[in-house]
From TrEMBL:
<dbReference type="GO" id="GO:0005524">
    <property type="term" value="F:ATP binding"/>
</dbReference>
<keyword id="KW-0813">Transport</keyword>
<keyword id="KW-0547">Nucleotide-binding</keyword>
<keyword id="KW-0067">ATP-binding</keyword>
<dbReference type="Pfam" id="PF00005">
    <property type="entry name" value="ABC_tran"/>
</dbReference>
<dbReference type="InterPro" id="IPR003439">
    <property type="entry name" value="ABC_transporter-like_ATP-bd"/>
</dbReference>
<feature type="domain" description="ABC transporter">
    <location>
        <begin position="3"/>
        <end position="209"/>
    </location>
</feature>
<dbReference type="GO" id="GO:0016887">
    <property type="term" value="F:ATP hydrolysis activity"/>
</dbReference>
<protein>
    <submittedName>
        <fullName>ABC transporter ATP-binding protein</fullName>
    </submittedName>
</protein>
<dbReference type="InterPro" id="IPR003593">
    <property type="entry name" value="AAA+_ATPase"/>
</dbReference>
<dbReference type="InterPro" id="IPR050166">
    <property type="entry name" value="ABC_transporter_ATP-bind"/>
</dbReference>
<dbReference type="InterPro" id="IPR027417">
    <property type="entry name" value="P-loop_NTPase"/>
</dbReference>
């Protein structure tokens, strides 16, 4: 399982290049922080990795990847379902008996510091709890590629810290994880760092920028 990115570059019609000459090999067990100034193309790169968007130059090859999940800035859960329901569901969907699915779900809630709210409805969770639950649910679903867009953007400092703490426990041997972020603490919670600033035309050698 692997994502190979080769000499990738993208620009939208009649707009300047966002980035060029990006080479990456993404593998499971790592959590890649994707940083860069606002408008540098972080969300665009996530869409290219997912295959939602075709690159203007270069290639993105996904090897042995069929399931791709996203976690967005705002947690989207089912309001009246409990936290445990949210993480048990992916296990049930894979055919686990209820008891086992709930046990596995509970272990994930413990890992993400959510054991105390296991039986709380989603609508009663705080912003940080909701966001950590989205990460826990994404891990439970075991996608081969997990794309996370600005997970702390809507959170205050201490709530963001809780989410960043969860990110330090996110790495999974079954999943390649990429997190677009502005937050230096999120970047430091990841295992690897890709800085789009180094791939903006102004930073690249030669005269290709225009
Ligand atoms: N479909 C589109 N058509 C034209 N321009 C687009 C499109 N999608 C994004 N852009 C532009 O591309 C640039 C990069 O956007 P993108 O959202 O990828 O940046 P970002 O680094 O994620 O920004 P931020 O940190 O502010 O979220 C922006 O100037 C944006 O307006």
């Amino acid at each position: 399982m692997r994502v190979d990115v080769r000499t990738l570059g993208h620009q939208f019609p009649d707009r300047p290049w966002l980035f060029r000459d990006l080479d990456l090999v993404l593998v499971p067990g790592h959590v890649y922080a994707l940083t860069g100034p606002s408008g540098s193309g972080k969300s665009t790169l996530l869409a290219l990795l997912a295959g939602w968007l075709a690159p203007q130059e270069g290639t993105v090859e996904r090897h042995e990847i069929s399931d791709i999940s996203w976690v967005f800035q705002n947690p989207h859960g089912t309001p009246r379902r409990t936290a445990l329901d949210h993480v048990a569901l992916p296990f049930l969907a894979r055919g686990a008996p209820v008891h086992e699915a709930e046990q596995d779900g509970l272990s994930l809630l413990v890992r993400f510091g959510l054991a105390d709210v296991a039986h709380q409805q989603f609508r009663r969770l705080s912003g940080g709890e909701g966001q950590r639950l989205m990460l826990a649910r994404a891990i439970a679903a075991r996608p081969q590629l997990l794309l996370v867009d600005e997970p702390t953007a809507q959170l205050d400092l201490s709530t963001a810290r809780e989410v960043n703490d969860a990110i330090t426990r996110l790495a999974s041997p079954q999943t390649i994880i990429v997190i677009a972020t502005h937050d230096p603490e999120t970047r430091d919670s990841c295992t690897d760092h890709v800085d789009l600033a180094h791939h903006q035309p102004a930073f690249l050698p030669g005269t290709r920028a225009r």
